[in-house]
């Protein structure tokens, strides 16, 4: 009996407990537990199936003008990634304005408008030429950021997690399949606050395109179906306060809106 077969027939496959499991964290036979924890799903447009979210990856400083406004040199920096917890997702249905809670601890809460690539196939060391075959679909989202805490932690050479990885920090729309939208290599990406244009760029200005991001990320971690990647934000990130309404757009996807409460 090979390992994969063994695990598929094991009653107690629990998250992360058994290294080498074909699908880490996926229980083939659900164990009895003393309490339930939430799974995270996104709607898939055009079907009643849901997209199960495994991990949320985010690339940093992926537009040159944004890298400059964050104080780094876009020409010399290789791509870097961070994660948000999966349950940080706030899904916002198209055509609605969802209440988004202003988080604790910050006095400088920023929006970052981003394309989101949603993987349907995993792999290790995926070549860039093959990487788009791993994309299931796309969405758009906000990488919400406690900028003051991100900066303060960076200044102290501490992890910036508290600035990036907190409840509701991963705002995202529904998943559109590649068959519905094609791949996103260019097209407008913009963000308005209270109707006023704040961010306005083109996806073709990404330093590392979606294929290159998947390829680079898969060198650091084995990727799996359900992983999603926030593909970076253009320049002119900025603060919001309670009462502000954020609307973001990417050509080919329905707009996404939240109200800060
Ligand atoms: Mn970002």
Outline the structure in words:
The chain is of the alpha+beta class and 261 residues long. It has a single domain (3-19, 36-186, 193-260), classed as Fumarylacetoacetate hydrolase, domain 2 (Alpha-Beta Complex). The protein is 17% helix and 30% strand. It has seven helices and 18 strands. Strands 3, 4, 5, 8, 9, 11, 12 and 15 form an eight-stranded mixed β-sheet that branches. The protein is globular, with a radius of gyration of 19 Å. The N and C termini lie far apart (55 Å). The model is unreliable at 1-21 (pLDDT under 50). Manganese (II) ion binds at residues 58, 112, 114, 143, 230, 232-233. Manganese (II) ion is lined by residues 58, 112, 114, 143, 230, 232-233.
Layout: helices, strands, pairs:
Blueprint: H1 3-8, E1 41-43, E2 50-52, E3 56-59, H2 64-69, E4 81-84, E5 89-91, E6 97-100, E7 109-111, E8 113-119, H3 128-131, E9 135-143, E10 145-146, H4 147-155, H5 161-164, E11 170-172, E12 176-177, H6 178-181, E13 188-193, E14 196-202, H7 210-220, E15 228-230, E16 238-240, E17 245-250, E18 256-260
Parallel strand pairs: 3-15, 5-11, 6-18
Antiparallel strand pairs: 1-2, 3-4, 7-10, 7-16, 8-9, 8-15, 9-11, 9-12, 13-14, 13-17, 17-18
The structure holds manganese (II) ion.
């Amino acid at each position: 009996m090979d390992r994969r077969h063994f695990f598929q027939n094991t009653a107690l496959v629990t998250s992360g407990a058994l290294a080498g499991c074909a699908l880490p964290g996926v229980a083939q036979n659900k164990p009895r537990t003393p309490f339930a924890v939430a799974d995270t799903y996104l709607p898939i447009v055009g079907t009643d199936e849901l997209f199960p979210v495994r991990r949320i990856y985010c690339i940093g400083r992926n537009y040159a003008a944004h890298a400059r406004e964050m104080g780094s040199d876009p020409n010399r920096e290789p791509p870097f990634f961070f994660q948000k917890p999966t349950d940080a997702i706030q899904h916002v249905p198209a055509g609605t304005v969802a209440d988004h809670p202003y988080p604790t601890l910050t006095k400088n809460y920023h929006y970052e408008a981003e394309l989101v690539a949603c993987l349907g196939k995993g792999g290790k060391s995926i070549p860039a030429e093959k990487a788009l075959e791993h994309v299931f679909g796309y969405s758009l989202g906000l990488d919400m950021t406690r900028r003051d805490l991100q900066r303060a932690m960076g200044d102290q050479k501490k992890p910036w997690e508290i600035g990036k990885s907190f409840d509701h920090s991963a705002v995202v729309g529904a998943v559109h399949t590649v068959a519905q939208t094609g791949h996103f290599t260019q097209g407008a990406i913009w963000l308005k606050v209270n109707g006023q244009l704040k961010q306005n760029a083109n996806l073709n200005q990404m330093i590392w395109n979606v294929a290159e991001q998947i390829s680079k990320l898969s060198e650091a971690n084995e990727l799996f179906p359900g992983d999603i990647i926030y593909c970076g934000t253009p320049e002119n990130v900025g603060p919001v306060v309670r009462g502000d309404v954020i609307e973001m757009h990417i050509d080919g996807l329905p707009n996404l809106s939240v109200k800060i409460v």
